[in-house]
Every structure is written in C-alpha cells, then in structure tokens.
Amino acid sequence: ATAASYRASKARCGGVMLAAVFNNAGRRAASMPLSGISSFARPTMYRPERSLWIWDRIKETNDKFRTRSEAALEQRRAVLREDFSNHSQNIKSIGQVIHKRNTDIHPPPDALYDHKAAFNFPDLQTMSLKGEKVHLSAEKHFKDKVTLVSCIGSRFSQRMVDAWLNGMMSADIPETDRPSQVVWLNFAEGPLFYIGIFRRMLLISARYQFSTEKQACTLYHFGNSLQVRQRLGMTNRYLGYVCAVDSQGIVRWHVHAMDPPEQEELAALGKLIREMHSKQKRKQLKI
User: Fold this and answer.
1) Judgement on whether residues 164 and 225 belong to the same structural domain of the protein
2) Which PANTHER family match (predicted)?
C-alpha cells in the first residue's frame, strides 16, 4: 500500500510539472510579437508561371551553350582538315625528294624578272644565332644591298643551297659579280619551337655546327611558314630554294630544285648580280 501510494503521488507530481511546462511555453508564445511569428510561419505559395520562367531561362542558356560548342567543333574540324591536307602534301613532297621525281620545279632563269614577274620578298621577323631579332624587309636588312637568300625547310636542301651561296662568294666569281650579302634562312616548324627554351637550345646547337663566318648570316624563322613559302613559290619544303633580292626587297631571280648548280650556272647568276648592282647605282645617282 505504501508503494502504491508513492507511485500515485509521483505520477500526480509529474503531471502537474508537465502541465506547468506547457503553460509556460504557451505564455511565451503569446508574448512574442506577431512579426516574429509571421516571419517563421510565412506560407509558401506555388507559382506555376515562375516555374515556367525558370525552365525557359535554363533552356535558353542550354541553347546558347549548344550553339557555341557546335561552332567550336566545326572550327576544330576545319583546322583538322587543313592539318591533314598539309600533312598529305608534306608526305607527297618528301616522297618526290626520296624518289627524285619532279625535283626541278623551277630551274634558274636566264634573265632577271621584269616588273610583272618580280614579286616582293615577304617581311619576316627572324632570329640570329646570337638570339637577336632581325627584320627582313626593304627598310631594314635589304636596304641598299643586293642579297642572295637561301630558304631551307629540311636537311635535304642543305647541299643545294650551300653550293649556290658558297659558290657565289668564292674566289672563282669576280668581286663585281658577287652579292652584297648572303642569308641562310632556316624555317623551324613544329609545336616545340613555340616554346622559348627549345628555340634557345636549337640556336645554341647551331652555333657549334656552323663556322664563324656562316653564323653571322644564318637566321631562323620560328612557327608556321606555309604562307611565306607560298608567297615565295617554294612549293616543296624539302627542296632547295635560292633567290636574289634587290635593295627594294623585290625578288628578281630564284631557283627551286634539288641538284647543286654547275659552274656555268654560277657564272650566269654572277652576270645577273652585276646587272642588279648597276641598276642600284643608277637609282642612287638619280636620287
């Protein structure tokens, strides 16, 4: 009986305490300002027009991204087609050199080009073996000089261009028939040469390959040279190319072949160089 009465009194006390807790919570809720209650209990209304507007914005953004990605994809496809075409042309060109077919594309002409056949040498930013920038243009490197320029796209053409330039500067050619200067222009193509450290490594290694006299007139053009070669008429980069440029930067004579020249061809070019010197002197006297 004592235990039962104890449990009953404990239950009554617990009920009284629980009721007091609920009453206190109710009084605190009643004392809160209405703005606080409304801020916590603000109802959310479904707006179908707002949902449609959001989906329209998402669809519009996706359409813009799709249009941009398709345009970028088409642009990369065009670049890929161009690269594949250039690669096929290079394979065909090197095949002609290896099998010695069609290697005499443009033999040396017997006379200087007239104003209709002559063409301008493209302005080029090149780099010397010392790492200095050299601008090949009528106002800079070609000014008041008759220049014999060789364009080298590969090692296959080295023997041909060396025979032309070294032969024209040799003692067998009279001094009046020699050009004012010679230039070995090397086309260094490839993705590696877009990075400066690989350019410097190439220039350093080339210094040990060439003699001191040749180092002063050896230049390098880094990057894609396709447009430059097309303007020069250098259709096969693996064949040698040599041209005579006057003081105005105009190409008056050029040869594009594989075989080195004969002594008669060197003598014939010497006469044309002498003619270019005389024309330059007459222009200077008129000025």
Assistant:
1) yes
2) MITOCHONDRIAL ATPASE COMPLEX SUBUNIT ATP10
